[in-house]
Amino acid sequence: MKTNDVDILAFGAHADDIEIGMGGTAAKYAAAGKTVVFCDLTKAELSSNGTVADRAEEAKRAAALLGVQKRLTLDLPDRGLFLTEEAIRAAAEIIRRFKPKAIFAPYEKDRHPDHGACSRIVQEAFFSAGIRKYETAGQWDAHKANRLYFYMINGFHHPDFCVDTGEFMETKKKSLQAYRSQFVISEGSVATPLTSGYIEAVEARDRLMGKETGKTFAEGFLTSSPLLIEQDLIGD
């Protein structure tokens, strides 16, 4: 069974994880004509604010703002993400279905356990999806992506590389603001870390990453293996 190859496949534990960590990069590559697909492992059914239906609609709007070609939501349990064979096979099937050149996942070191679990699940799926005899539910051919990268959600870590996202910071902020149930206090909602200046903190982190690289804004990433530089080592 065949499907169109995509350039970027980004995984998150919950809708809004990918936007927080790499919304600017996703928008930049989509604007350049690259195909970008998002996959949320859970429906975020245990979130303190909002409903599953709210989150699904917000995720749809956010993806559209970023130029994402397709967004999928798996049915793995919120706060029940663990390194299980079920979870690995589910992620591996998505990799085989879309055949991405590059895969992105949360960085494993994060205060939210689901983010670390998502990272570990995708790392295993990245490897297993390339094994011909490894079985997944869909009858897709084995696929080995070129690269596996990790984005930051909570916290600040020293990146292995950064992407200049200055032209797309406002787009990223709009995609985050689409999640009103998560980032805005309203009637019936409760205060959480997300409602206490979280978007502003993300913007400040991206600004700091930009200063580290001589740009206005940037997003930082970590790699699963060293990057090979084949051309100019000096830069502009």
From TrEMBL:
GO terms for biological process: bacillithiol biosynthetic process. SUPFAM superfamilies: LmbE-like. Its cofactor is Zn(2+). One of its GO terms (molecular function) is deacetylase activity. Pfam families: PIG-L. It comes from the Bacteria. It catalyses: (S)-malyl N-acetyl-alpha-D-glucosaminide + H2O = (S)-malyl alpha-D-glucosaminide + acetate. This is Bacillithiol biosynthesis deacetylase BshB1. The lineage of its organism: Bacteria, Bacillati, Bacillota, Bacilli, Bacillales.
